[in-house]
Amino acid sequence: MKNPTPKSLPQFEWKTNAAYLTAIPALIILCLAAAPGPQSSSEHLGNKAPQLEGAWLVSVDFPDGSTFESTVSYAAGGAMIGSDPSVFPLYPMTTPFHGTWAKKGHRQFVFTAVSFQYDNVEDGYPDGLYKSVIKETVTIGPSGNDYNGEGTVECYDPSGNLVATFPDNTHAVRILAE
Fold this sequence. Notes:
The chain is mainly beta and 178 residues long.
């Protein structure tokens, strides 16, 4: 038997088949539009591994008992930026920490960040641009909204000589949009 063509089908049946053929792509487009799009890093926590991307409020603890709060933001792709209010007013000019991060395991990440401080204060140290380097490993908690970290801070003088290294411990909570 020969396949029917639009001319051999009755007028009503041909229009009905054409309507179905037009409705199928429209239905596919509608389903795709209704599918969930990208989620923010705090929404992804269902059964996926926790992510580091986002903004965090960090409590930094040093062995001498000093502590301070800081903010750090981790961007997709590995960039990070953080503040360090602990050096104010010791240095008249301080830059934010800039760095990069990488995933090491299911909930473990590492980062390295650099900041500069200019010292021209009469404090016994040479005037010039000092550099601080933080190297840290952080582990995100099961909820995905906190992390603990351990690392080191390296301090370099204006000539590039390493003048001090000391450990740090951090605890951070994710800053959530509400």
